[in-house]
Task: structure prediction
Amino acid sequence: MSETLRATGKAGARLPNMGHGIDRERPVEFTFDGRTYAGFAGDTLASALMANGVRLMGRSFKYHRPRGVLTCGSEEPNALMQIGPKGAAEPNQRATMQEVYPGLRAESQNRWPSLEADLLSVNDALAPFLGAGFYYKTFMWPKAFWERVYEPFIRRAAGLGALPAGHDETPYEKPFAHCDLLVIGGGPAGMSAALAAAKAGADVILAEEQSALGGRLLLDGGEVEGLPAHDWAADMAARLAAHPKVRVMTRTAVTGAYDGGVFGALERVTRHLGDAPKGAPAEAFWRITARASVLAAGAIERPIAFPGNDRPGILMAGALRGYMNRWGVAPGKSIAIYGRGAEALATARQVQAAGLKVAALITTGPAPEGAGGFPVFAEAQVVGTRGRKSLRQVTVLSGGAKHEVIADTLAMSGGWNPSVHLTCHMGARPVWRADIAGFVPAEGSVPDMQVAGACGGRYDTQGCLEAGRAAALAALGREVPSVSEGNNVHDEPEWRSTDWVVPGKGRAWLDFQNDVTVKDVQLAARENLSSVEHMKRYTTQGMAPDQGKNSNIGALTVLAEATGRSISGTGTTTYRPPFVPVPIGAMGAGARGKGFAPERFTTSDGPSRERAAPMVEAGLWYRPSYFPRAGEATWREACVREVRMVRSAVGVCDVSTLGKIDIQGPDAGAFLDFVYANLFSSLKEGRVRYGLMLREDGHVMDDGTTARLGPNHYLMTTTTAAAGAVMKHLDFAAQVLQPNMDVSAISVTEQWAQFAVAGPEARALLRTITDTPVEDADLPYMGCCDAVIGGVAGRIFRISFSGELAYEVAVPARYGASLFRLLLAQAEGLGGGAYGMEALNVLRVEKGFITHAEIHGRVTAYDIGMGRMVSAKKDCIGKAMSQRPGLLDPARPRLVGLRLSEPMGKMLGGAHLFEAGAEARRVNSQGYLTSQAYSPELDAHLALGFLTRGPERIGEVIRVVDHMRGVETMAEVTAPVALDPEGERLRG
Amino acid sequence: MRITCPLCGARDLREFSVTGSAALLNRPEEGAELPEWDDYLHNRDNPAGPSDELWYHSGGCGAWLVVRRDTTSHAVLDVRLASEQKT
Result:
């Protein structure tokens, strides 16, 4: 015993012959509110604090009442703490679930300045004014106070604990698992189910939220098959752990049941360790897919609502047994037991056997047979308690008289509520069983799920073992053994609601966490919030982390009585996932920072960054914005230089991000005719054509060029932005609309690196890298050919997005970086170089070429001046709907060029167009600007936009107003093409 | 939710994207009147119960699927290749 004294620092708090779950050889030091305490390996924070005589562990949410531990599980409403290193402590951690480790740091919450002296406990004295709906009724007038006064005040008072101020650097994991059978809960029913399923050959996952298998066998004492229950459980756990078909996942709470046999589960991977391996996740949020499942989640003990039932020292009877048996903790010296029937008597006997004083056995029914050796109050109720920060005295009403019982601990039990939560996640409602006074899952609540043990209303150990086995075999579709009619200690006649709600005055808590009392629920009923869902929202009962685990049945019992209905007629609120709180960080594991979206890099990414090119995002891709040179102060200077370089010499630009789709098959031509507005079957081999793609509703979907590489072989290009959407669209067209066409399409975007070589010197450059003839006679404008480029088989396309003589050179992606370097070296020798997105944009605006700035999803072929491209010779996607009268209205805003009369600074797309004399108001808007660029070639500020009757208004001067940025200018309406309208350059 | 792709087997919902009613299979013939096109593109039943939907196995084989799904329970009743729905 001397060793125990040193370790706990407090004599008498540990029970010498109990506590199978702790290792007295391994003391563990931790701090709570700055003070150092000692516990043992195997302790929870709650058990270790209790062993140190600490009772006060938290303050209630609203009234700041002193609170101690109520339970020993994840349903704990009171002992919520901030746990972890300073600055990164997690709020609202349950002390009952947190295992102690050396150096653990815990702080109490919802108190100021300290847990012992909390100034906001003044709220408790003001309680008569703070009933349900107080905030709704009070903070209404004056309206001007809503934001400035009321909200800051309420926010300061609201919330439990504090989130770390910085980024959450906690490592989380998001793993997946698959199995034949998921067993939820590792008590007797769950262990039995897992073993039976494994023996039947199934792959089993057994998930248990506690740190060890055993469930109530670890807490209640007693024997199973001649062994102490916890030893039997340990043997069984060892058998399961050794079984090759079983994966045991302790510290893993199944949080939700979803469609198709998918479950969420939160595993505390290293939360119980002080020295977690570096990079190991604190928690992992599992997605478990199971062919079938067994719910063996057990039951949660029901508190009794009696006046003053929230004082530190009042806890659940099952928790009392647990603290004694598993952790060897005596919660107090003089213990009163308040409950019903044989189980209450068994609790008293255990207290006695532990050498503690039974202050009284208070039963709601007749005196149990064999009770003796301590005062027994039969047909009794607790009607009051005393003690500010710790229970001192209990007032018992029995036989019409009040009796005062001196006790520092009161263990209560109002029966058990089966943990039906997961069976309700897919919309089912539980059903009331009067014989056990509890809701049990409705048949077939979750597809392929069987319910076993206490969560199905079967409470005796033997029955749980049998039910677990039967449920597992039923879930696997095997022959199901019969389950005996066992001796069920809870299955006693004549449960009455007064067993868990004591009638009378005084504040009796239902929801300890949210400070909801019987009166609050009665008030809700009086104010006609008589639906259980309305009552819940009005009183906040069962909200927040509690989720009705402790309070639901008590609250709806009170509501049922207040509204004159039955419990089953009142029903429960909806149980929703998650069963236990899941950190957002765990749900989004891996999606922090760059993990949020994948990054796609072109083969020229390295060489581009070497040249200090700032990269811009284009969808998931990164593309160079421009390639700065010494002496250039702004992006604009670099951009102007690059544009001039292309117009006067040669420029190189990576265009690999454009979608490339390889289309083959005897019907490839017919298929392209179907997906493009214009005709492609007539395209000759070795030629390229611009194609316009419509959606079925007649609007433009995408554009690009498609080359015919062989008789049955085409290569389509798409815009960068729409590459994925077009691939999906082609799959749709081929599989859904034209399944009889013999054609295949596959994306080859990432297989090819492709570079534009543009400018008067483009041909001279190409001659230096390939022997393939590229003269006008060999490869005319809109021609294409196979080529050998630097010794590598590739392709050359004579297409241009700049209006210059231009080629696009394609090689397999693995040669991309090398080709880019080679092209740049050659270009620089010719007075050229690389150009980026900014220059590319200027070049195309000068030529009136459209991008998705123009084809933004609401424009038609007619709007962009390509109405005639919709071929009359054939059907195509979007053809019929593109002919709707409204889409051919000349008054529609249609594509025009604009020459802005003065530099517009930051003016970008989105500015509106008005008649020269018109007021710049929405109703007068005649269109909008989509793209803008400064053309060094023309020394003009050019733009593209859509203007009502645009093509009919060439030469008109209009007003351009950007309300967002507060700028405006006048502009002359022009044709979209500003430079080289005849296209002489690109045919050169 | 799980969908059993006829080509790939049972896969997680995250591999698929839904487009909507399988009514899109029945594209009007060339020359159909606009009201027929309106029906095809825009007008949809909103059934409580079994419903045929088009899903795309975008994170898998690229197959378009006709998934028969019960809108009241989310149960997947049947999955077929869209390309085999027409004769």
